[in-house]
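User: Please predict the structure of the protein below. I'd like the answer in structure-token form so I can feed it into my own downstream comparison script.

Assistant: Understood. Taking the following sequence of 295 residues as input:
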Amino acid sequence: MGHHHHDHTTGNIKVAFLLNLGFTILEIIGGILTNSMAILSDALHDLGDSLSLGLSWFLQKYSKKENTSEYTFGYKRFSLLAALINSVVLIVGSTFILFEAIPRLLNPDMPNATGMIVLAVLGVLVNGAAVFKLKGGESMNAKVITWHLVEDVLGWVAVLVVSILLLFFNLPILDPLLSIGITVYILYNVILNFRKTMSLFLEAAPEGIDVDKVKQQIENINLVKSIHHTHLWSLDGEHHAFSTHVVVPENASKDDICDTKEQIKQIIQEIQLDHITIEIEYEDEACSVLELSHH
């Protein structure tokens, strides 16, 4: 089941990528022809998405490769890399758009409103179709992309509203204003995602899991004297790994230990874990890791 779902994701990412790329090229030309900064900033948005879709499609395929002797955890983290590269591209692009749009506030040019309306309607349709293809993806990667595309649809709805206003009112300043609005919004979200991706990169515990609570529950198990070296980290935002050292009384039997492990697994089963390591130590034995860390 798991595999099927992912191949499905990869296929959908591919379709969304091709749709988006073709449309981005059309848009950049359209933005230049209609003289609209708002269209160009949306084009940047779409270009960022095309890139992230392309990277995701490539890396999603890559991240499903089985683990090797070199990458023992497999390639799951490669999809984090995609999210990271994409963030950087969008930050650079957004900065460029702001440099172009802000001077236009002072002497705005009237864009071609009819052309803008045509592009905006196309924009809503194409991105809407892409969102539809990608709904329900679970990885950080798929979520980031779906979110991007939803934003694109909203961006195009905004362009549509502004271009309709421009048909009736001579308010050319609306165009750079909208452009700056879209760009600031892109930047805000990119920076949020960038922080999330970085924290996963730096092996922070996955969001929404209270590690202290988990420790507390394990320590409350009957035979557990204490625990140490407890680590919870995430490979890609949806596949997590957990390890801990558990100290038990020196007279604990094999059954006691199996039982204790079972209880620990019960506690952590609500977290979606791909890797679990539980090291059992007797009270009177020295912890291998602790001994080493003293020197």
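That's the full token string. The two ends are 48 Å apart (CA to CA).
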